[in-house]
Amino acid sequence: MLDGRTHDYAVDFSLDSQGNIIIAGYILRFDSLRNDGVILKLDSTGCLPSCYVGIDDNSEEFDFRIWPNPTDGRLNVVASSNQTFQFEVKDLLGKLASSGEGRGHRIIDLSTLNSGVYFIQLKIQDKVWSRKIILDD
Question: What is the pLDDT of residues 1-12, one digit of tens each?
Answer without folding.
Answer: 444 566 666 677
